[in-house]
Amino acid sequence: MEWLYVLMPIAGVKIFWPGLIILGVGVGIIGGFFGMGGAWMVTPGLNILGFPMAFAIGTDIAHMAGKSLIATMRHGKFGNVDYKLGFIMIIGTVGGFECGAQMVMWLERLGNVEKVVRYIYLVLLFLITWMVFHDVNKRRQKEKAALAAGQEVDKLATGIEWHKTLHKIKIPPMVTLKEAGITCSVWLPILVSFFTGWLAGILGIGGGLIRMPALIYLLGCPTHVAVGTDLFEVMISGIYGAGSYTYKGRTELVAAIIMLVGASIGAQVGTVATKYIKGYGIRIAFGLAVAGCALSIVLKMIAKAYPSVGDLFDGAATVLILGLVAAMSFYIFIKMLQGAKAELAAKAARNA
Fold first, then answer.
1. pLDDT tens for residues 239-285?
2. How many domains does the chain have?
3. Which range of residues forms the domain containing residue 39?
4. How much is the pTM?
5. Which DSSP category does 352 fall into?
């Protein structure tokens, strides 16, 4: 089965190339749907397939930049991108990203980059999973209370409302964001973007994994606007990050190109799917995907800790991450087809 593996000339490792294609197409769909580059799945996925962690980070960022550009253009046509908010957040994103990238280089010199990045990933994934499902649970409680009182909950209301507290901070200058429908201190999006940019530089992600929830829960953006605006930010940080990691010699361009071809197609599907799956449907699917990704990292860590069963857990981690990408992509694709079919049927009924 040697033909299923290809040598990566810069990283110096042989990689299962069908896995790269599955990651590229699948994460293109998932990234376009959730409003992020999908690196929160690809970086551990590349590491599980055999890339050293620093190369997994740099390679993923390179493929992510081009894919996010395509998805941002599609979301812009649907009016899902708050460009004013996106440009404000660039200030913090770029500064935070470079701080994170420099920290990775430092950890690599110490020989601790694999261990530290995996533990940060794990904590972050479990924290976000808790936050998403805690929000869903609180939203359902509100709906039940409203139903009992004979009322209806605002469709844009969230379970977690941290943004209402943060909006009370009135440090000038203040800014009004039309598409997002909020007014807040300009320092709030800048500080949020610096923190997410810093984590992005360490973890090799566009920041979407943290920024999309941050836009919803800390800034108060509607879900569909958070998706589109986050992709715009992922594109910016991805372009900057790709140049930074390539300059540092940690980008495997062969793998990035293989994934980008599939991701460019997948991103179109994922973006269109957000037209038919709104609000909490997106959040629940996102929470399930994050939980699955966290489990795959746990399996990889068990394989490292117990060499006697290492092959078994390594294989399980690979099957889980690729299976998760494939299953989530299939779900989004089917939902898109169902939504498009219903829309066409409604148009035909109106014209009849």
1. 777 777 777 777 877 887 777 777 777 777 877 777 776 656 666 77
2. 1
3. 2-351
4. 0.61
5. -
